[in-house]
Amino acid sequence: MVVGLSHSISLCDRLTTAELTTSPILIEQPLQEPVVQKPPADPKTVASIILGGGAGTRLFPLTSRRAKPAFNPQSLNRHLARTYDFANGVNFGRGFVEVLAATQTPGESGKRWFQGTADVDAKLRHTENILILSGDHLYRMDYMDFVQKHIDSGADISVSCIPMDDSRASDFGLVKIDENGHILEKPKGESTRTMAYLFNGYWEDIGTIKSFFDANLALTNQPPKFHFYDPSKPIFTSPRYLPPTKAEKCRVLNSIISHGCFLAGCTVEHSVVGVRSRLEHGVEFKDTMMMGADYYQTETERGLCLKHGKVPIGVGANTKIRNCIIDKNARIGKNVVIANGDNVKEADRPEEGFYIRSGVTVVLKNSTIAEGTVI
């Protein structure tokens, strides 16, 4: 029996001391609105749209011959088809992956066909919530927790946000929220209810040369802030079926070496070496990301290159490289030095096979850096 405070006092007056020590007295609480249990989020009713468009200017020159999907989608489409082939035995549940290509309108308006990454046309059935994601961020999030918080809040739109210090705030879009998570600053004329979902895990933008470079090298840290080895939350990519990397008399410190590489008598420090990379004797890498190669050259092909004074794919003997991104299939000769000793921040040298962006030297895809070159 629940009684009010006045009833409790009058009841105590008629109880003995022994009764007081054994009999509970319940104090009535103010009436509260009943809690309405929100339905659990159902992944079958959630569709995700990954925005992968853009002109690619922030990641140039890496995007000069690589997919920025609004303009050069072929390699991305091929990657998706190979990686998320649901008939190959990999179990992704009942999900699906479909490319929603941008459509160009004929006539004058077609010249302005790219209107931003949100300019997509999706017709999705049985969908109650749409999760819109950016394709140039590195993080690991439980999206269903995000969706559940959205449902529980009753919001029309929920935006995932992370705390950001003043030193980096100018690089990102900013929102202002109140103590309940409501986003206060809205577009003019909008009456939509918008909530913030605060994400406190690792998150990094990789949409610029510097951020892409830093995020990749940060994976070599011990321990890294982000790693790919969580068995409960695996990261999938396209299978390549390459042999293990072979290293002979090498020194490798705090680095990641991908599969299918040949390393001979070289030093690799705080660097990432991509698939099918080849580093010859005396090569020194530091703070460098080598993206590898799309194919192998046979020993005969390599021999013919050297015989005719050409540079084979890979990095030649006694070459020293630091603070550099080496794009796919690059040919770097012997005794090359890439160090940007003059600390140049920006430079365009496409005819010489490289650019410099934010102080990082970028060796172009399929380019050749001649023997003895100093950058």
Secondary structure blueprint with pairings:
Blueprint: H1 5-13, H2 17-22, E1 46-51, H3 74-83, E2 129-134, E3 137-139, H4 143-153, E4 157-161, H5 166-169, E5 194-198, E6 203-205, H6 209-218, E7 246-248, E8 251-253, E9 256-257, E10 262-264, E11 267-269, E12 272-273, E13 278-279, E14 284-290, H7 299-307, E15 314-315, E16 320-326, E17 331-332, E18 337-338, E19 346-349, E20 354-357, E21 360-363, E22 368-369
Parallel strand pairs: 1-2, 4-5, 7-10, 8-11, 9-12, 10-13, 11-14, 12-14, 14-16, 15-17, 16-18, 16-21, 17-22
Antiparallel strand pairs: 3-6, 19-20, 20-21
Keywords: Allosteric enzyme, ATP-binding, Nucleotide-binding, Nucleotidyltransferase, Starch biosynthesis, Transferase
Domain Nucleotidyl transferase: 72-194
Catalytic activity: alpha-D-glucose 1-phosphate + ATP + H(+) = ADP-alpha-D-glucose + diphosphate
3D architecture notes:
Its EC number is 2.7.7.27. Strands 8, 9, 11, 12, 14, 16, 18, 19, 20 and 21 form a ten-stranded mixed sheet that branches. The N and C termini lie far apart (85 Å). This protein is of the alpha/beta class. The chain contains seven helices and 22 strands.
Main traits of this protein?
single chain, 375 residues, alpha/beta, three-stranded parallel β-sheet, 7 helices, 22 strands
Summarize the structure.
The chain has 375 residues and is of the alpha/beta class. It has helices at residues 5-13, 17-22, 74-83, 143-153, 166-169, 209-218, 299-307; strands at residues 46-51, 129-134, 137-139, 157-161, 194-198, 203-205, 246-248, 251-253, 256-257, 262-264, 267-269, 272-273, 278-279, 284-290, 314-315, 320-326, 331-332, 337-338, 346-349, 354-357, 360-363, 368-369.
